[in-house]
Amino acid sequence: MGDINQFMIVQRNAKLVRGPILEIGSKDYGSTPNFRTLFPGSTYVGVDMAEGKGVDVVLDLTDEFGVLDARLDGMRFRTIICFSVLEHCRNPFKMGESITALLEEAGTLFVSVPFAWQIHAYPSDYWRFTPGRREGSLSCREVRRDA
């Protein structure tokens, strides 16, 4: 998922992106930019909880890690893109653990969540994150902010 501003953040920071790439929440809802087009030739896997355009694997990242690992054929990712998804997750802390486990050591994670934004369902909207809570939800080794 994501919007044009998030697309531009990835575009501006393309030098940080290395394959394989995992996009979480990749379903195209008709107005979402296609991050995959930025990295032709890279191994790119789009996951979402529902089938649709842009989705390679239907997956719930709060499932037990063994299930995720099997569905992704044991792949680990050097880049993970997760924009405007965590607020839709009933258990973002479990999802954060899964993201951390799927990200290779020294990998790059692009993550964005709303703080002040209207409630929006895809399928539901559960959370808002402060910067401190967001960083505490993921076991990141280094945090860089791109305003």
Integer tally of domains: 1
Write down how many β-strands occur, each being a DSSP E stretch of 2 or more residues. Answer: 5
The gross shape turns out to be globular
Second-tier CATH architecture? 3-Layer(aba) Sandwich
Strand content: 15-25%
Low-confidence stretches: none
Assign the CATH class: Alpha Beta
Query: What's the helix count?
Result: 4
CATH topology value: Rossmann fold
Major beta sheet summary: 5 strands, parallel
> Structural class, from helix and strand content?
alpha/beta
**CATH homologous group name:** Vaccinia Virus protein VP39
Query: Percentage of helical residues?
Result: 10-25%
Q: Alpha-carbon distance between the termini?
A: 19 Å
Record the strand order, biggest sheet.
3-2-1-4-5
SSE pattern: HEEEHEHEH
**Radius of gyration over all CA atoms, rounded:** 14 Å
Write down the overall mean pLDDT.
Answer: 83
Please give the oligomerization state of what you see. Answer: single chain
What does this structure look like?
The chain is α/β, with parallel strands linked by helices. The protein has one domain (4-137): Rossmann fold, CATH 3.40.50. Helix content is 23%, strand content 19%. The chain is built from four helices and five strands, in the order αβββαβαβα. It has helices at 4-12, 65-71, 92-102, 131-137, and strands at 21-24, 44-48, 57-58, 77-83, 103-112. The protein has a five-stranded parallel sheet. Helix 3 (92-102) links the parallel strand 4 and strand 5. The longest helix has 11 residues, at 92-102.
